[in-house]
Protein backbone atom coordinates (compact mmCIF):
# COMPACT_ATOMS: atom_id res chain seq x y z
CA UNK A 1 0.00 0.00 0.00
CA UNK A 2 2.75 2.48 0.93
CA UNK A 3 4.32 2.32 -2.55
CA UNK A 4 1.02 3.21 -4.21
CA UNK A 5 0.47 6.10 -1.81
CA UNK A 6 4.05 7.29 -2.32
CA UNK A 7 3.34 7.38 -6.06
CA UNK A 8 0.25 9.54 -5.53
CA UNK A 9 -2.44 6.83 -5.80
CA UNK A 10 -5.55 8.45 -4.29
CA UNK A 11 -7.45 5.15 -4.19
CA UNK A 12 -4.73 3.61 -2.01
CA UNK A 13 -4.78 6.71 0.19
CA UNK A 14 -8.54 6.35 0.71
CA UNK A 15 -8.00 2.68 1.55
CA UNK A 16 -5.46 3.68 4.20
CA UNK A 17 -7.91 6.25 5.52
CA UNK A 18 -10.64 3.62 5.86
CA UNK A 19 -8.23 1.14 7.46
CA UNK A 20 -6.76 3.44 10.11
CA UNK A 21 -9.42 6.07 10.80
CA UNK A 22 -11.22 4.29 13.65
CA UNK A 23 -7.92 3.26 15.25
CA UNK A 24 -6.68 6.85 15.17
CA UNK A 25 -9.96 8.18 16.58
CA UNK A 26 -9.53 5.83 19.55
CA UNK A 27 -5.90 6.85 20.01
CA UNK A 28 -6.66 10.59 19.81
CA UNK A 29 -9.52 10.19 22.28
CA UNK A 30 -7.01 9.03 24.90
CA UNK A 31 -5.60 12.57 24.98
CA UNK A 32 -8.95 13.70 26.48
CA UNK A 33 -9.83 15.82 23.49
CA UNK A 34 -13.34 16.90 22.61
CA UNK A 35 -14.92 14.90 19.79
CA UNK A 36 -14.62 17.76 17.27
CA UNK A 37 -10.93 18.10 18.20
CA UNK A 38 -10.44 14.36 17.69
CA UNK A 39 -11.86 14.57 14.18
CA UNK A 40 -9.69 17.60 13.36
CA UNK A 41 -6.55 15.93 14.72
CA UNK A 42 -7.07 12.78 12.66
CA UNK A 43 -7.87 14.79 9.53
CA UNK A 44 -4.62 16.75 9.98
CA UNK A 45 -2.66 13.52 10.39
CA UNK A 46 -3.91 12.22 7.05
CA UNK A 47 -3.15 15.58 5.43
CA UNK A 48 0.44 15.38 6.71
CA UNK A 49 0.68 11.83 5.39
CA UNK A 50 -0.43 12.87 1.93
CA UNK A 51 1.89 15.86 1.85
CA UNK A 52 4.87 13.70 2.87
CA UNK A 53 3.90 10.59 0.92
CA UNK A 54 7.02 10.56 -1.27
CA UNK A 55 9.16 9.76 1.80
CA UNK A 56 7.29 6.60 2.81
CA UNK A 57 9.58 3.58 3.22
CA UNK A 58 7.25 0.73 4.26
CA UNK A 59 3.74 -0.06 5.48
CA UNK A 60 5.01 0.01 9.06
CA UNK A 61 6.52 3.42 8.38
CA UNK A 62 3.13 4.61 7.12
CA UNK A 63 1.37 3.30 10.23
CA UNK A 64 3.92 4.70 12.67
CA UNK A 65 3.84 8.09 11.01
CA UNK A 66 0.07 8.33 11.39
CA UNK A 67 0.27 7.58 15.12
CA UNK A 68 3.02 10.14 15.66
CA UNK A 69 1.19 12.73 13.58
CA UNK A 70 -1.95 12.23 15.66
CA UNK A 71 0.09 12.49 18.85
CA UNK A 72 1.71 15.75 17.77
CA UNK A 73 -1.56 17.27 16.59
CA UNK A 74 -3.28 16.22 19.82
CA UNK A 75 -0.60 17.89 21.92
CA UNK A 76 -0.92 21.04 19.83
CA UNK A 77 -4.68 21.01 20.41
CA UNK A 78 -4.14 20.66 24.16
CA UNK A 79 -1.60 23.47 24.11
CA UNK A 80 -4.06 25.70 22.27
CA UNK A 81 -6.56 25.09 25.07
CA UNK A 82 -3.93 26.07 27.66
CA UNK A 83 -4.11 22.60 29.21
CA UNK A 84 -0.69 21.42 28.19
CA UNK A 85 2.81 22.90 28.40
CA UNK A 86 4.38 23.83 25.12
CA UNK A 87 6.79 21.03 24.30
CA UNK A 88 5.43 19.47 21.15
CA UNK A 89 7.53 19.63 18.00
CA UNK A 90 6.76 18.55 14.48
CA UNK A 91 8.09 15.10 13.65
CA UNK A 92 9.38 14.84 10.07
CA UNK A 93 8.33 11.71 8.25
CA UNK A 94 11.90 10.49 7.86
CA UNK A 95 12.42 10.45 11.65
CA UNK A 96 9.53 8.19 12.60
CA UNK A 97 11.21 4.96 11.54
CA UNK A 98 13.75 5.35 14.35
CA UNK A 99 11.11 6.10 17.02
CA UNK A 100 11.01 4.04 20.18
CA UNK A 101 9.66 0.63 19.13
CA UNK A 102 8.18 -0.29 22.48
CA UNK A 103 6.11 2.90 22.66
CA UNK A 104 4.85 2.51 19.11
CA UNK A 105 3.96 -1.15 19.66
CA UNK A 106 1.97 -0.25 22.76
CA UNK A 107 0.09 2.46 20.88
CA UNK A 108 -0.63 0.10 18.01
CA UNK A 109 -2.09 -2.43 20.44
CA UNK A 110 -4.32 0.28 21.92
CA UNK A 111 -5.43 1.38 18.47
CA UNK A 112 -6.20 -2.17 17.36
CA UNK A 113 -8.33 -2.57 20.48
CA UNK A 114 -10.08 0.63 19.52
CA UNK A 115 -10.79 -0.83 16.09
CA UNK A 116 -12.33 -3.91 17.68
CA UNK A 117 -14.60 -1.69 19.75
CA UNK A 118 -15.46 0.47 16.72
CA UNK A 119 -16.41 -2.61 14.71
CA UNK A 120 -18.72 -3.71 17.51
CA UNK A 121 -20.31 -0.25 17.75
CA UNK A 122 -20.94 -0.21 13.99
CA UNK A 123 -22.97 -3.40 14.31
CA UNK A 124 -25.31 -2.10 16.99
CA UNK A 125 -28.89 -1.15 16.12
CA UNK A 126 -29.06 2.55 15.09
CA UNK A 127 -30.53 3.86 18.37
CA UNK A 128 -28.16 1.76 20.47
CA UNK A 129 -25.19 2.93 18.42
CA UNK A 130 -26.17 6.60 18.65
CA UNK A 131 -26.67 6.37 22.41
CA UNK A 132 -23.29 4.70 22.90
CA UNK A 133 -21.49 7.22 20.68
CA UNK A 134 -23.06 10.20 22.44
CA UNK A 135 -22.09 8.73 25.80
CA UNK A 136 -18.54 7.61 24.96
CA UNK A 137 -17.33 10.05 22.33
CA UNK A 138 -19.17 13.17 23.49
CA UNK A 139 -19.49 12.45 27.22
CA UNK A 140 -23.21 13.19 27.39
CA UNK A 141 -25.37 11.90 30.24
CA UNK A 142 -28.68 10.03 29.76
CA UNK A 143 -30.79 13.16 30.24
CA UNK A 144 -28.84 15.06 27.58
CA UNK A 145 -29.01 12.10 25.20
CA UNK A 146 -32.75 11.76 25.81
CA UNK A 147 -33.27 15.41 24.86
CA UNK A 148 -31.27 15.01 21.65
CA UNK A 149 -33.03 11.80 20.61
CA UNK A 150 -36.54 12.68 21.86
CA UNK A 151 -36.54 9.71 24.23
CA UNK A 152 -37.34 9.06 27.86
CA UNK A 153 -34.13 9.07 29.99
CA UNK A 154 -35.10 5.64 31.35
CA UNK A 155 -35.23 4.30 27.79
CA UNK A 156 -31.79 5.75 27.12
CA UNK A 157 -30.38 4.04 30.21
CA UNK A 158 -31.97 0.73 29.28
CA UNK A 159 -30.71 0.82 25.69
CA UNK A 160 -27.26 1.92 26.82
CA UNK A 161 -27.03 -1.04 29.21
CA UNK A 162 -28.09 -3.37 26.43
CA UNK A 163 -25.54 -1.85 24.04
CA UNK A 164 -22.77 -2.37 26.59
CA UNK A 165 -23.83 -5.99 27.12
CA UNK A 166 -23.74 -6.59 23.37
CA UNK A 167 -20.30 -4.98 23.06
CA UNK A 168 -18.94 -7.11 25.91
CA UNK A 169 -20.08 -10.21 24.05
CA UNK A 170 -18.63 -8.91 20.77
CA UNK A 171 -15.23 -8.32 22.37
CA UNK A 172 -15.26 -11.68 24.14
CA UNK A 173 -15.96 -13.61 20.94
CA UNK A 174 -13.75 -11.69 18.54
CA UNK A 175 -10.69 -10.60 20.50
CA UNK A 176 -8.64 -13.23 18.65
CA UNK A 177 -9.18 -11.24 15.43
CA UNK A 178 -7.04 -8.30 16.58
CA UNK A 179 -4.68 -7.35 13.74
CA UNK A 180 -1.54 -7.46 15.87
CA UNK A 181 1.94 -8.84 15.30
CA UNK A 182 2.36 -12.43 16.48
CA UNK A 183 4.26 -11.31 19.58
CA UNK A 184 1.21 -9.34 20.75
CA UNK A 185 -1.50 -11.94 20.19
CA UNK A 186 -1.89 -12.28 23.96
CA UNK A 187 -2.54 -8.54 24.36
CA UNK A 188 -4.43 -7.63 27.52
CA UNK A 189 -7.98 -6.51 26.72
CA UNK A 190 -8.33 -4.74 30.07
CA UNK A 191 -8.50 -1.23 28.50
CA UNK A 192 -11.59 -2.16 26.49
CA UNK A 193 -13.23 -3.75 29.49
CA UNK A 194 -12.49 -0.68 31.60
CA UNK A 195 -14.18 1.55 29.02
CA UNK A 196 -17.35 -0.53 29.13
CA UNK A 197 -17.27 -0.76 32.93
CA UNK A 198 -16.87 3.02 33.19
CA UNK A 199 -19.76 3.70 30.85
CA UNK A 200 -21.95 1.22 32.71
CA UNK A 201 -21.27 3.03 35.99
CA UNK A 202 -22.22 6.38 34.47
CA UNK A 203 -25.81 5.15 34.22
UniProtKB/TrEMBL annotation:
Keyword presence, Transcription regulation: yes
GO MF annotation list: DNA binding; sigma factor activity
Signal peptide as annotated in the record: none
Record-level GO BP terms: DNA-templated transcription initiation
Domain RNA polymerase sigma factor 70 region 4 type positions: 117-166
Entry keywords, A to Z: Sigma factor, Transcription, Transcription regulation
Gene3D superfamilies reported in the protein's UniProt record: 1.10.1740.10, Winged helix-like DNA-binding domain superfamily/Winged helix DNA-binding domain
PANTHER family membership: RNA POLYMERASE ECF-TYPE SIGMA FACTO, RNA POLYMERASE SIGMA-70 FACTOR ECF SUBFAMILY
Family: Belongs to the sigma-70 factor family. ECF subfamily.
Protein name (Swiss-Prot/TrEMBL): Sigma-70 family RNA polymerase sigma factor
Taxonomic source organism: Candidatus Pseudobacter hemicellulosilyticus
Amino acid sequence: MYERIANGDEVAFRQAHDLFKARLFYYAKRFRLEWEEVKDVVAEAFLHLWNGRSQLQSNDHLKNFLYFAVRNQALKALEARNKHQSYTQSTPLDQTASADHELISHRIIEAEMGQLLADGIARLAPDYRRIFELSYYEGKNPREIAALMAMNPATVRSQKRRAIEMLREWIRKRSFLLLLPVSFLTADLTPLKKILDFLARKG
